[in-house]
Design a protein that fits this description.
Blueprint: H1 2-35, E1 37-41, E2 56-60, H2 62-66, E3 75-79, H3 88-103, E4 112-119, E5 124-128, E6 131-134, E7 137-138, E8 157-158, E9 163-167, H4 177-180, E10 183-184, E11 188-196
Antiparallel strand pairs: 1-2, 2-11, 3-4, 3-11, 4-9, 5-6, 5-8, 6-7, 9-10
InterPro entries: LexA/Signal_pep-like_sf (IPR036286), Pept_S26A_signal_pept_1 (IPR000223), Pept_S26A_signal_pept_1_CS (IPR019758), Pept_S26A_signal_pept_1_Lys-AS (IPR019757), Peptidase_S26 (IPR019533)
EC number: 3.4.21.89
Subcellular location: Cell membrane; Membrane
Amino acid sequence: MEKDKSVGSQILHEIWEWVYAIVIALAVAMVVHIFVGQITRVSGESMENTLHNGDFLVVSKWSHLQNKVPDYGQIVIIDSRVNRPRTWKDDVTDVAGNYVAIFSSKAEQHNAWVKRVIGHPGDVLEFKNGHVWRNGEELEEPYTKDVTMDFSRATPIKVPDNCVFVMGDNRNHSSDSRFIGPVPIDHVLGNVVYDFNLFR
């Protein structure tokens, strides 16, 4: 009888050690994903031909932590819910939601978008003849897929303080600042430092 108890307690002890190790590993992974960087995946065609559906992106969170204005032309991940304030709790729930989405596609979030930074605070943007003009100068944008047909916003637009203006490279098939408006800096979740596709 005592031998059975000893075996039972050994099994419980081993299970507890596994659970403890898994919890610690998840906690460390969450800290890394919130404060350092993460890998995410492109869903959709809004950044073609630069990025493609299914591409994997390595995203640095350093600029998000510093609340830093990303460079012109930088590819970033944004929280598209621009009309609500964002707090540190969102960083935690976003990462937790990504983990849950691994096991259930219903938990997948669709508010994180990948876009390119076109305008900084104070910039005046105009859309003329299928091209973007910033502060009176036409932008050279070799990364765009087509001449832009639809801008869906009256111009000129002055980018407000503490905001950036973002657009997808596939201008005719992208939801971006033309539709949701300028993006607050704290809604820029990180910048893309590397992209790859395992299946191409």
